[in-house]
Structure formats: structure tokens, C-alpha cells
Write a structure and sequence with these properties.
elongated; 4 helices; 5 strands; Nucleotidyltransferase, domain 5
Length: 141
């Protein structure tokens, strides 16, 4: 705390900016010295490409398959109700597609993990390679 010399009757209220200027000058010098070190020393010429995706290839791409499982065990294939037998046949036919579409598995909050595990085993036994689990991020995290 800075005090006045005696001419005035209270503490000095001016901010001493000298330490702030000293710190800023030191930071400036550090940045001036380290900036050249941040550049890459080895110059590499990257190859250029002229890739243009084929329209037929883009049309061939299929969207992901969504399988939803409710708490009671009911199954939905892209929001269409199905049974386990139909699920197995559809998964085996989807596994034969080239490229194979990804499988997104969604379950209710209250769906038992055993049910999800059973559907995952069915999908892997039918040949599905890309299986993802869909969830919603909690608010506030």
C-alpha cells in the first residue's frame, strides 16, 4: 500500500503502472524471441490433387441404419416396428451391401443393457462391422 508524504491527509489513490509496463515489456521480448522458432524449418512441397467425386459413387452411398430398442424390448428399424426375426434378415442383407452402411443402435434410458447387448450380438453375428451407440449429451456438461 502506498502512503502519501505528508502534504495530503490520506493514502495515495493513483495506480502504479511501472510494474505493469515492466511485465508487458518482458512478455513482448519473449514473444519476439520465440516467434521465429515457431516456424517450420523443413520446407515440404505437398502434392496437389484433382480429385472429383463421381456422381454415381455419391448416389451409391446409403445412410446409416437406425435400430431403436424400447424398454419393453420392442424394436424399430428406421422408426418402423419389426420383430427380431425380421431384424436378423434385414441385418444380414444390409451386411452384404458394398459399402456397408453403419448401424446406429438407440435405446431408451430405461432399456436394460442385456437387451442392447443381445441386439449387438445379433448384428455382429449377421456380419455388421460398424455398430454405433447413440446417446444424448447431458445438459450442463
Amino acid at each position: 500500500m502506498a502512503f502519501s508524504s505528508g502534504n495530503s491527509s490520506g493514502p495515495m489513490t493513483d495506480i502504479n503502472v511501472t510494474p505493469l509496463v515492466d511485465v508487458m515489456l518482458v512478455l513482448l521480448i519473449i514473444f519476439i524471441i520465440t516467434a521465429p522458432l515457431m516456424s517450420h524449418k523443413v520446407k515440404v512441397e505437398l502434392p496437389e490433387t484433382n480429385f472429383v467425386p463421381d456422381k454415381e459413387e455419391l448416389d451409391k452411398r446409403v445412410g446409416p441404419i437406425t435400430v431403436a430398442v424400447k424398454e419393453d424390448g420392442s424394436l424399430f428399424w428406421n422408426d418402423e416396428p419389426i420383430t427380431k426375426e425380421i431384424l436378423e434378415s434385414r441385418l444380414s442383407s444390409a451386411a452384404q451391401l458394398t459399402p456397408q452402411p453403419p448401424l446406429n443402435l438407440r435405446g431408451d434410458k430405461t432399456t436394460k443393457m442385456g437387451t442392447i447387448n443381445e441386439i449387438t450380438k445379433i448384428a455382429t453375428s449377421q456380419g455388421m462391422l460398424d455398430i454405433g451407440f447413440v446417446s444424448i449429451k447431458e445438459k450442463g456438461r
